[in-house]
Amino acid sequence: MSELSPLSNPWGLDGLSVVVMGAGGGGIGTSISRFLGHAGATVVAVDVDAEKLKVCTDRLEADGTRHIGLLADGRDKDAIAAVVENACELAPLRGSVQVAGGMWPPQWAPFASDDPAFDDVMALNFGATVTTVRAVGRRLVEQGNGGTICNIATTSALNGMPYGSAYAASKAAVLSLTRSLSIEWGSRNIRVNAVAPGSIATPKSASTRKPGDTDGNDTDVIPMRRRGTSDDIAKGVLFMMSDMSAYVTGQVLCVDGGTSVRPTYNDNEELPVFVHNEELRARLRDW
To answer: What are the structural domains, with CATH classification, of the chain?
Structure first.
């Protein structure tokens, strides 16, 4: 049997650099950067927005994390190549986390409409992931020491997203790429996994709500009856990026409070809508 890794430091990230694409803004990317930093990684925080990037780098500075902040667009091959070079100058490259992406309310549209945003959403969510993962993967192969890549997907990629088909399709493509690369690069000891968030409360998601709006009945469809936090996602990513998941590759970790396994026919009491007998409902509910 192989020896156990030292339990005092199970992460295996000390002295290694990790690129976090979409690190800015104080949401998921910032939390991921902080958790990786606390685990010993040198964080290369990347964002396309200087103001949002500063939110992340200020917090990393306060944490005492070794880091740099870089402005780059994940869709720009030359910019990403430069990011990888900068990361390797700081420390040997461990890998990367692809957070950058999303879809804004103006981009929601019926698929049958003439939707000019569809290609933009695909380019941001899938195209930027392809560009970054290819550049990072090449360097990991050159280093010859293995590495780890984690893509941020969404639970919508596992089922569907009406009026947001571009987002669901782009993230489904990310999951397919994740699985394919885990096989292609497995013999090089490069692991490729994904984390699929459910409903997560972030500064970005809050910007789509009206002032004073609350979660209301949103949590009725979440078995754990709360929205997730950025830290919830960061913990899952840390697991995937660390030696704690050393024999895990090609997998999708849903961090969603149970929504991805919740039956679509359940009501807000988590009982099937076709169960009408009040005695039976009471017996199942009041346990």
So the answer is: 17-285 (3.40.50.720)
